[in-house]
Amino acid sequence: MRIIGPDYLVFGVDDLEGSRTYLQDFGLKPVQLDATGWLYEALDGTGVVIRHRDDPKLPPALQTKNMLRQQVFGVEDAATIDAIEAEMSRDRRVTRLADGAIEFQDVLGFELRFQVTRRRTLNMPAEKINAPGAPAQRAPNELGVTDDVPALPRSLSHVVLFVPDIDKMVEFYTRRLGFVITDILTGAGPFLRPAANDDHHTHFFIRTPAYMQGCEHLAFHMGGPTELMVAGDRFTRKGYQSFWGPGRHKFGSNWFWYFNSPLGVHFEYDADMDKHDDAWVAREAPNGPEASQVFLLQWREKWAPGGGPEGGAKG
Amino acid sequence: MASLPLCHRDDIPEGAARGFLPLPDAPRRVIVVRRGTRLDAYMDACPHYTGGTPMAWRRDAYLNGEGTHLACHAHGALFDIDTGACVSGPCLGRKLTRVALTEDQAGYLSVPAHVAGRAAREE
Predict the structure, then answer these.
(1) ipTM value of the model?
(2) Largest CB tally within 10 Å, which of B46, B71, B107, B120?
(3) What's the pLDDT score for residue A97?
(4) Which residues constitute the domain of residue B7?
(5) What is the DSSP letter of A252?
């Protein structure tokens, strides 16, 4: 199954105007889909679709109040769509849409859609660093950072789900859709990547009671740690609420910074995630602060030493 | 009991919530909700995780879209404004920590000094 990963995540929100402002300030570009729906896209065209929660164009809501309505997966080609349709039709209803995409529910009732990916190929450099002992990545006179660094989300990276039955979900996504488990946080759940994506994870499942089922967070890849810090600093200065970070995860090695949102999920900036192939053997560690990060920092106002002691020098 | 000035009742628009730091370096804000003459105050600390986590998605954005409940915008939990009880979401069955408000004759509100040192949720 040549699945690449989420092209879009669709939400039905109760504060449409607040959500639109939030997504734009996060760094995503609005594309109006129709009179009542908007796609907020990253540089490669992946992103978040929002509508008011009463909009009849939305797939049905989960039993919980979670605002996630659908995960739209991008796949490599039409043959993959046909293969998924054949596999899923064995035991569930699959709807074929006019544009060739298919829709169905997974084993726990999450709404899924699969389409030939609409993501655009990006051609832009990663953050470049210089270090003794290694060839310089930046040319002489090429600056590492300026005040106007763009720091825009490049691509929808991953989605994290609260799931009441991990075993059923893992079986469905690995055996039926060809996902691979890359690592496991015992007590929480597994990280997974689809066959046509070498990122450490596009999905992470967290074991929860049924009344929590839904999306926990979603993340966008940035061009590097500096872009992540700059984007998070700007977002904080606009009044948005940091939840966790900045820091660097252990599993996946990605830098992270999470923020609260009016979509009822966290939005994460991430950067510099590990890549894996089928030779990788999944690790396992007990979930907790030690396994979750190499280090954790917290935002503060800009400050600099200077000015001398209050009241002037003594003596 | 020592108390700290928080704000004036008119600093909170009708039907709205705002968050105030009881001291500049306090670990958590105090949320005040105003409905008519009624004021309710809670620590800005969602009881989902140990220690509590901040609930707004933007400064002072503590209510859900309809303005009917206090909401934690980490995972969408909804809380009854009258009681602080979680009615939907991860912390179902738990409560926000209520803060006692004192109002003087001019409408200035103050809170017990210990809330400035309180990061954790208390039952």
Answers:
(1) 0.89
(2) B71
(3) 97
(4) 3-117
(5) T
